[in-house]
Amino acid sequence: MDSPLLIAAGASFIAGLLGYIIARLWIKPIVRYNITKRKLDHELTQFLALMNATVEPEKKMEKQKRGDAMLKTARKHAMDLVSCYGADIPYWYRLLLDSRKESPIEASGLLTNLSKIRDREQVSCRINRARKIMGLEMNTATLKTPYGQVR
């Protein structure tokens, strides 16, 4: 065999191995974290829109059920973020999130008991605090819901 051919084959094997390790252990967990964070943002935005919508009395029960389902999904996403943060994402990315003051653990704590709180203002305040802790924008201009208009 040719020596340059062996060197090229060895170098390409090492490059492929390093690419696989970086993609599998760094890129994939970070992308999963960011996708879950966007899903959480979507659920919280939709819940705030639903909460602020005015509905007819006959649709009030349907709105309540939809809101409870949204909160359950948001809590699931928050717990997925905590799981990613604690076990999956690389340490250097956790340090980056900490430098941005982004804490999925604290945000998850704020979202845990929202379904038990009946004061709409307090629920809204906790959701906004959780969104701020996660570094999510507060864009309320695009809030729409199928149950009515946002006030």
Structure description:
- There is one protein chain.
- By secondary structure, this protein is mainly α.
- The protein is built from five helices and no strands.
- The protein has helices spanning about 5-50, 60-90, 90-100, 105-110, 120-135.
- α1 runs antiparallel to α5, α2 (about 60-90) runs antiparallel to α4 and α4 (about 105-110) packs antiparallel against α5 (about 120-135).
- The protein is elongated.
- The termini are far apart.
- The relative contact order is 0.15.
Task: Outline the secondary-structure elements.
Layout: H1 3-52, H2 60-88, H3 91-99, H4 104-111, H5 120-133
Helix pairs in contact: 1-2, 1-5, 2-4, 4-5
Q: Unreliable runs, pLDDT <50, ≥5 residues?
A: 141-145, 147-151
- Approximate shape: elongated
Q: Percent helix among the residues?
A: over 70%
The gyration radius over C-alpha positions equals 22 Å
Overall mean pLDDT: 88
Order of helices and strands: HHHHH
Largest sheet descriptor:
none
Number of strands: 0
Question: Between the first and last Cα atoms, what is the distance in angstroms?
Answer: 76 Å
Strand fraction equals: under 5%
Number of helices: 5
**Based on helices, strands and strand pairing, what is the structural class?**
mainly alpha
